[in-house]
User: Fold these one by one.
Assistant:
Number 1:
Amino acid sequence: MLRTAPERFESPEWVRISMASAIVLRFRSGRFSRDFPFGGINLLLQYEDGCRSDCAYCGLARTRPGTYTEKSFIRVDWPLVSTDDLVERMARYESALTRLCISMVTHGRAYADTCEIIRRIRRRVQTPLSVLVAPPTLTRERLQHFKDLGADMIGVGLDAVTESLFRRLRTDVPAGGLRWSNYWQVISWGREVFGPWKVNCHTLVGLGESDRDLVELFVRLRDRQIYAYLFSFNPEPDSRMGLHPKAPLTRWRRIQLVKFLVETEGFGMEHFRFHEDGTLAAIAAPRALVEQAVSSGLPFLTNGCPGADGRPGCTRPYGSYRPSEPFRDYPFVPTPEDLQVIRAQLALDEILPSPATTPAGGPVPSRPPELG
Amino acid sequence: MSGSTVRVGRYELMVDRLYDPEHHLWVLPVSDTRVRVGFDPLGVEVNGTLAQLVLAPLGTVVRRGEAFGSLEAAKFVGPLVAPVSGRVVAQNPVALSNPARIEQDPYGEGWLVELETTELPAERAYLLEGAERIALWFRERVEAYRREGVLAE
């Protein structure tokens, strides 16, 4: 009797997509609480034996209970779809799409499958495409190949912003082994291959790092013309950090503001004061400049790769908080009402000098204006 | 149309009850002074995959148009708006513990609350009844949601 192997729902034939992507491509019914345009499509490679990494905070961690298919990523289900159906839908709705992103996972087939998926997308769709890379699977040549195939940006999920934290959460864990040096090597290769402001480094706020650790990294990345993308730690139930609290909103808002000031307004370490434990104590800069940044609402937008028009293209609505919780990052420019809430959360008076003691002059912008 | 149901596209609607056309809730009188309230199938679907249901405590008095709870889905959160005025006298424990049942069986195990009310005769005018009117309204709503891109294809 002839037996056929059961179909395996794996990449490159199958991928998982974020729930927001599934809604905008009409694979799933649903809507967003607030009305805003959304066109950032996130894909995640799918393997039955899952990601080979075991990061303490991640929903896909190897030793988190459950099969890979049952696991949630960023707390919500990621529907499984056929890659060809997905590309078909992307082509149908391309005019609404702003940015595509393929998230690799640490797996032996991830590089080849990512290449194949980029090829299939690029045959039908020209929306800008990023790859969130899995450093252990890559070399400089492989990064170059992603670029040659049509990816214009890469992201590196460093997540833990100091070497000791990285080691504790991603290396010295039950089935871990990720290496800090490997991640930085890939960041460097990526910068060489893709160019200035075409590489981003994901940083998670709330894993146990200090504010000073974060700001030092922001400055270091900015000086290399690499974006830092902020993510707010959101505990995944049953993960090893499932009971670890999120960063308080005030801290989160201040970190968003500080990162914006570093990346966009040219602030350096000399513009910030820290308490002994590394907590931000003060911003030493003209109050008007800081107020202007806050009023723009831009520091509080989701950090994501831009669309073809330079505006935020990957905005991941409700990606690190539930719809019933206060916004962490905003997938749209905050309204005046939103800004009132943000100002209350920031409690700026605690960290800004009064106008009378404000130093004259300030840093100069460090990033080309066309990059927003 | 069969018995007390009517089919609109892929949706089967119970027409033995009244509907709040704005909020997609059905109202089923279960006694002279008591109604059961639940979602119609479209009202559930457009919110997306449900995550959590919160219902007002027993004894809460709500006016028509006020919230008697809230519902959270993967990317959406919104109030549950009372289709008639009344006092919350029962909550559905099945829906509370497993909101997925609201999607799976909106007319049966997925009901939401029961309200004690004497306002139904006065507020009936705000609600839809009769198979033909219900089907017409529902068809229009399906089309509108489809145009908005809220429904899966």
Note: The longest strand of chain A covers residues 153-159.
Number 2:
Amino acid sequence: MNSEQEQPRIGIFICHCGTNIGGFVDVPDVAEYAKTLPNVVHAEHNLYTCADDGLTSIKNAIKEHNLNRLIVASCTPRTHAPLFQHTCESAGLNPYLFEFVNIREHCSWVHMKEKEEATLKAKDLVRMGVARANLLQPQAEKKVDVIPKAVVIGGGVAGMSASLSLANQGFKTYLVEKRDQLGGMVRNYYKLTPTNIDAVELIENMASELKKCENIEMLMSSTVKDVEGYIGNFKVTVEGDTDKTLEVGTIIVATGAQEYKPDGLYEYGKDDRVVTTIELEKMMRGKELEGIDHVIMIQCVGSRGEAIPYCSRVCCMTAIKNAIYLKEEFGIGVNILHNEIRVYGDDYEALYRKAQEIGVHFNRFGENNKPNVINENGKLTVEMFNEGLSRVEEYPADLIVLSTPMVNIPEAEELSKMLKVPLGQDRFFFEAHVKLRPLDFATDGIYLCGTAHAPATIPEAIAQGYGAASRASIPLTRGYVQVEAITSYVDENKCRGCGKCVEVCEYKALELIKLDTGREVTRSNEVLCKGCGTCATTCCNGAISMKHFSSEQIISMIEAALTEPALVKPLTNGFKPNIIAFCCNWCSYAGADLAGVSRFQYPPNVRIIRVMCSGRIEPNFVFKAFEKGADGVLVTGCHIGDCHYISGNQKAEDRMNMVRNIVHMLGLEKDRFGLVWISASEGQKFAELMTDFISKIKELGPTPFSIKK
Amino acid sequence: MTATKNILVIGGGVAGIQASLDLADKGINVYLVEREPSIGGIMALLDKTFPTNDCSICILAPKMNECFANPNIRILTNSELISLEGEAPDFRATIVKKARFVDEKKCTGCGDCTQKCPVKVPNKYNMNLDKRKAIYLPFPQSVPRIMTIDKERCLKFTKDKCGNCIKVCKAGAIDYEQNDEKIVLDVGAVIVASGFEIYNPSDMFEYGYGKYSNVKTAMEYERLICASGPTGGHLVVEPGGERPKRLGFIQCVGSRDLSRKNPYCSSVCCMHATKEAMLAKEHYDDIETYIFFLDLRAVGKNFQQYVDRAKKDYGIKYLRARPGRIMENEEKGTLTIWYDDLIDPHIQSIDVDMVVLCTALMPSSTAPKMGEILGIELDEYGFFCAKDPLANPVCSTKKGIFIAGYCAGPKDIPESVAEASGASARASEVIAQSGGGDVP
């Protein structure tokens, strides 16, 4: 089927997603509306389009109606595009002739109280999708060989487990550890339950397993200084005892966490008798507990508060294990002062029961009554309102142990920028999907495990290490990956040979070549090109086009969003602004998705257009939006330093500052145009920004261009 | 002896699905054995998932379909392992595939048969809250999309009558003569991901489950609040059918309870109750929700923040108490929850319209038998135990057999997924048998 020449025949499937969409959007009405749009020859709605019967009806409709374009209006392409693209392929349709319209995360879930307006917005989004679908072209993906080697960053229990499994599966594995010995945080611990093994012995056992593997090369006292490349072909520069550049197919992040230092809390740092959990573990290791008869442990120090809102998962168990060892091996009494005891599962709950049986005291201070440490006349006492007994109690202490949360290591920030993978709001590394892709990053070829992801117990970190090894071994075993066909294409007839695009390309995917005529033009290397589109935006002559994200496609969506008067008109009295937001695939679009799944509500005035990178936004897109009647335009992308394409957002920033001035020169208020950075983990921020921007535009009122309509 | 490049995965829940996909993506042949007529497990029946409230079946269905479409995975539904012989990496597994009386190659899943079937049967997939037919598809997203005849209830089998399904089936897929099939498989390793069972609180007299119609289990609640459930996503108070105005959730029902033989914490109930209360608020603005808990175990990534949001933005009330008794107030049609608040200790009560019991999630009752067949050990609670619970998770007590997900102890979905990938890695090692380390 040659879709380039054929008249588009579009089929559109609108999903109720149970009540997730159907409960807040009039889906049958949207489907009826879709039938009226250009070249739509088939429209239907399904309870679940992604279910087997939904997919079957897609396949049948492609055959029956001879469809050459497919649209699904349902959830987000970030989770479901591969499924529908496979369905296209199996029905003989090129997967690039598929268009996804997000009416759940970007519509029904964020406008749950406004069914009428949500329905109108869904129609707008569908109309935008149809406009783009009319211009979609088939594309061919390239296969790229994968170097069958991996690097694991971090030699704690998670990284050691990951390395062992990769090596046992037959892959050369580099293990990069910043210290001169393996074991990470665990090396500090005393004994470990339930087997009572010494922590160092556990690590040595694991290390000796690793040493048996010929496939493992350990790079000790070494840190990662630079990362280049992409899945299958990464170049990782390591500095240390010997500087090296590792060429690998996949990368595992197992950089671990560290204990939060409670400086200024509970006399910590002022009195040596106030220590952290890891400091206690070291004292137990060294048997340095002379003169101590009674220990008071305080839980949730620093955590579950404003600065660190999360629960650190392991502290209750660690405190209980230590209390048991103190009692049984050192004859020391222990009170654990806690908010509540969070020992989940079977073994830890059993440990809690055992501690109670042998006389470890548990005293609850509850949510709003943190204990006080009193240091008077050389005596330490903890004063606390005991919630269970409804009275204030005093606990004398020879040693106070503060259970503080795990926090990510400071180097994580830099590493996240090098790898172009995000950190969450808790500053831990942020996975591709909270539920079903806990060990993957959104970026292909990079995986994570252990406490770099979130606080975890030792067996959890080990299981995750193996799990990350499984994920990382998939491309290594296959030996190739297919790279997306979203690449730049240079029209040599239009190229003036100025070379500006060559300068902005971070991937050296463009080069100037001399034609037989003597003229120089740029040529694009499809394998090196990552598809950000910064070059296309830079080209003054319109000689570079982006496959699958062409300027025509993007402009068609802008126009479609703003050119159906029935939908632009206010529903009720009062001004309802129309706002176009450009979102980058990796950060702000994902942030918009997270706002949706989290049900952070914002007003239904925004129409989102997805691009791969904010660097793709041509000034003309913004002007076109205003010209067509947008009351406000937002360009959003990854935070500076986090750009998936290294520097696309910086280039966007430079360009958009200029755009803002031009917007002003056109007689529009500067505030009608915004440039904001939103990460994949900032769902709440996305909703707040939209709400704020919309109310600002409401204050400004319509533009001269939007009034004309 | 050469290692075979096949791996057996037992259990088609989210853990078994993830394990199968990881292996199949590496070119390993997977036999995915599932006892029920569809893969999907418990996750397929949940409405939303914490801590994002993402739609459960929406995120699982693509993975289920991926299993079905992957040429390296052979899904064996309605099937059970009956024996395992040999040692790693040369196991011989025998599977019994029970007759579903529908030809899997011919059935298109059109549903004509279901429409014409005259027999109505309690629908297990909706926790028996509505009816299905004797020939049925478990749920809309079932994989494979093939009908199954319930032999116990079908008139053809019980009374030799009817035969509507065979008459209407255009594909000629109905086969009343179909027999159970024995399948022998040579596999290099086995991954056990057989999941869990849900505690039935009928024997807890004090909570009145089974006696008071508005006392539900959390699993029943998941189906009620779910759009594809028996009420289309609406909560209804019986017998009137109006919506509840006050809702009480009770934690640790049958768990953390030595007298009920489940001393452990089920790990996920605090969070699913929080989610379920939030969903009630999303459905009904003015509903009041109370969660009775002992220790709120919001220990996972972003869980505490989720609970903080439930309190602050949703107004969900948490009460630290294990209620002693629930009594029905016949006049008002309400339920009175009697409790001793651990913060304000005296006996108090609160009236609600519906109570949700967050019951213990228990090891599967078939786990001991499966352990025997596989030659692997169970822990004191009945979960499969690891060779070394600290240093060697996912490895069972026998070489070449790996454990993942809830069958190896209480855990949530992402932990199950991570373990499933972990088990796949270790099972791949058995098959690769290179590198120099010990084969797990």
Note: The longest strand of chain B covers residues 79-87.
